[in-house]
Design a protein that fits this description.
about 75% helix, mainly alpha, 3 domains
Length: about 170
């Protein structure tokens, strides 16, 4: 490891390594959250370290200001910033209009439906659905509970409950 020159500021020593470390954690946690893996445990971590990543990135830009200005002036960077802005605006507009992913909306609606209705859609009897969930450690206190209620009472995630029912179907 190279020695740090005398008079080097803390920003110069830590800005880039901190940004890299936070990028790794925020990137991995973001991918896991996107795929609904450990959302409850990761959401707070992702949000707080995301804010820290923004701060570390700002320090990184401050430390490398001349290089930053140089790269921002290139047509490629300007085009990528423009395309990213257009994509972000499109997502925001679709969400604001109540659009979004209809499959996600369907899954959220199914998670709130009484278990017998979900079981019927999956060609299971309510008893088969309950038995499958209980066998995997879920707590079912009422046959008419929703999967969201069952998962919450069991301190588990809804996608896991759906996965159990889907495997019981096969």
């Amino acid at each position: 490891m190279a020695a740090t020159p005398a008079g080097t500021s803390s920003i110069q020593k830590y800005a880039t390594p901190l940004a890299v470390a936070l990028f790794a954690v925020v990137g991995v946690s973001g991918v896991l959250i996107f795929f609904h893996l450990g959302e409850g445990a990761l959401k707070g971590l992702h949000e707080w370290l995301g804010l820290a990543f923004v701060a570390a990135s700002a320090l990184h830009v401050a430390r490398n200001w001349n290089g930053f200005v140089k790269i921002v002036k290139t047509k490629r960077t300007q085009a990528l910033v423009g395309l990213t802005g257009i994509a972000a605006a499109a997502f925001i507009m679709v969400s604001a209009q109540g659009g979004g992913n209809p499959m996600k909306a369907f899954v959220f609606a199914a998670a709130k439906a009484p278990l017998p209705q979900v079981a019927q859609v999956l060609n299971l009897s309510p008893d088969q659905a309950i038995a499958g969930l209980v066998a995997k450690g879920f707590t079912v206190t009422d046959a008419n509970q929703s999967l969201a209620q069952i998962a919450k009472a069991s301190k588990r995630e809804v996608p896991e409950a759906f996965g159990i029912l889907m495997s019981a179907k096969n």
